[in-house]
Amino acid sequence: MQNVVAGFLIGGLPRSFFFPRKGDGYCPRVKLTCSEDGSGAGMITRCSTHRNAECRPAKVFRAFARGYRVKSILFALAAVTLMLSAGHAALGQSMQRGIYAFNRQNYVAASRSFIPLAERGNVSAQTRLGYMFETGRGVPQNYTEAAMWYRRAAEQGDSLAQYSLGLLYDRGQGVPRDIVEASKWLNLSAAAAPREAREARVRIRDAVTSKMTRGELAQARLRALEWAPSREH
Fold this sequence. Notes:
This protein has helices at 2-10, 15-18, 57-103, 107-119, 123-135, 143-155, 159-171, 179-192, 195-209, 214-226, and strands spanning 30-36, 44-51. By secondary structure, it is mainly alpha-helical. The chain has 2 domains: 2-55, no CATH class; 69-226, Tetratricopeptide repeat domain (Serine Threonine Protein Phosphatase 5, Tetratricopeptide repeat). A two-stranded antiparallel sheet has the order 1-2. β1 (30-36) and β2 form a beta hairpin. α4 crosses α5, α7 (159-171) packs antiparallel against α8 (179-192) and α8 packs across α10.
């Protein structure tokens, strides 16, 4: 019966916990003492066993404690990695659902997916949410909210958000009208635009800059040169 119980317990813990090895803090609980016959010939006449008072649990479990701590840390790291992977997978699925709903013009459903993602710093969700607030699709039209979401995505380097934010500054919608700031964002957007959108963005940028003085142009170019993307997470 004792062997069965020991086998069950050892299945969940390292064998060294119950049967420590010599050299790993091993301390025998039973001590063997032998006596000689007194003739000086080294003849042993009797041996007896008794409890080893010097053996303490700390010595028995010292080696196990060191190994168990390392295993516990590795297990915790593996658990955290698994949870993070599951979290990223869930966020990816939520983004896919939002894009699917957005492309099918189901903007209410898209907003439910995009809002929590945008709050977490997802650039694509922020840009789409800015568009939805600007146009009043799936959410109440609100230029201030649109400018806020465009700005968060633009500061992270999204060229479409930079373009849209530049237009809001040019028109003074959701932000004070500022042609220098408009030119800055339109410049950055044109520089990072995909090939199929570059020509149209350059044309809009040039239309805005045609209304600016030389001083304003110089100021806008300087702001664009000094800008650097900053990720939220």
